[in-house]
Amino acid sequence: MELKDTYKTIAFSSPETLFKEKSSKFFGYAYPIQSETEVKPIIDGLRKQHPHAVHYCYAYQIGTGAITYRANDDGEPSNSAGMPIYGQIQSFDVTNILIVVVRIFGGTKLGVGGLISAYKTSAQITLEASEIIEKTIDIHYRVSFDYKNINKVMRVIKEKNIEIVSQKMEMSCKIEIICRKKNAKIVFDVFNSMFEIEIKQL
Question: What is the pTM of this model?
Answer without folding.
Answer: 0.83
